[in-house]
Amino acid sequence: MKSKGLLVVLSGPSGVGKGTVRQALFATDHDKHQFLYSVSATTRQPRPGEVDGEDYFFLKRSEFEQMIEEEKLLEYAEYVGNYYGTPLEYVQEMTEQGKDVFLEIEVQGALQVKRRMPDGVFIFLAPPNLRELESRIVNRGTDSEEVIAKRMQQAREELQLMTQYDYVVENDSVDKAVKRIQTILDAEHLKTDRFIDNIVESYLQEGEE
Ligand SMILES: Nc1ncnc2c1ncn2[C@@H]1O[C@H](COP(=O)(O)OP(=O)(O)OP(=O)(O)O)[C@@H](O)[C@H]1O
Ligand SMILES: Nc1nc2c(ncn2[C@@H]2O[C@H](COP(=O)(O)O)[C@@H](O)[C@H]2O)c(=O)[nH]1
């Protein structure tokens, strides 16, 4: 049984649509599953329109390395030449308060979290095929040809690790992927202490009536 808030980790190769699916999920689902999004730290340069503290905490390499040194990260990984990591304090505090937290991270980091917090729900978002994955990254228009090639190389390795996740969800369409994730989250919520305590309480009350 789980006593804290639920930790949901959505992972998968760059460009598969994690951010798009997460935003659609949060937009359609906020009354039901009230997830808090954990903002990651990174040493990557901001893309046009990205806001510090909302999309990422944009840090210098030395600042990121200080966070590693001070053990302030739940997980971190070096991905295509930059650091990415999840600030530990936010996840710890929120889940301890019984709140559900949502991480959107790459595969090396997700597997570190799985080792540290095995009660989390680990979902791998998979592309329909590699050609479609590449065309999504290219059409997004945020990365150079060289970076796209590195991300695709990384994707080939990441796809081999999908069996280590609790669930694999294909992102063939955003609506379908959101519905699949909602079904998973509905089922996972039924396993939480919070739900079980409420249901047991209501059975006990019925017995007294
Ligand atoms: N089901 C889908 N069908 C077609 N295009 C999609 C689908 N899902 C996402 N996309 C598009 O693919 C591109 C990449 O999506 P997104 O940025 O959400 O991926 P990501 O996995 O969050 O990437 P990264 O890990 O690099 O941040 C975007 O242009 C998005 O609009
Ligand atoms: N291990 C972690 N990976 C993270 C984190 N935040 C984001 N990411 C992933 O990095 C890649 C590249 O992201 P991009 O914004 O440069 O396209 C992508 O797969 C992200 O999901 C994190 O905290 N830890």
UniProtKB/TrEMBL annotation:
Gene3D superfamilies according to UniProt: Guanylate Kinase phosphate binding domain, P-loop containing nucleotide triphosphate hydrolases
Keywords annotated in UniProt: ATP-binding, Cytoplasm, Kinase, Nucleotide-binding, Transferase
InterPro entries: GK/Ca_channel_bsu (IPR008145), Guanylate_kin-like_dom (IPR008144), Guanylate_kinase (IPR017665), Guanylate_kinase_CS (IPR020590), P-loop_NTPase (IPR027417)
Kinase found in the keyword field: yes
Reaction(s) this enzyme catalyzes, per UniProt: GMP + ATP = GDP + ADP
Domain of life: Bacteria
Residues at which ATP binds: G12, P13, S14, G15, V16, G17, K18, G19
One Pfam family from the record: Guanylate_kin
Major location (coarse): cytoplasm
CDD domains linked: GMPK
EC top class named in words: transferase
Positions of the Guanylate kinase-like domain: 5-186
EC number(s) per entry: 2.7.4.8
GO CC terms, sorted: cytosol
MF-aspect GO terms: ATP binding; GMP kinase activity
Location in or out of the cell: Cytoplasm
Signal peptide: none
NCBIfam families tied to this protein: guanyl_kin (TIGR03263)
Similarity comment: family membership: Belongs to the guanylate kinase family.
Function text: Essential for recycling GMP and indirectly, cGMP.
Protein name from the UniProt record: Guanylate kinase
Organism: Aerococcus suis
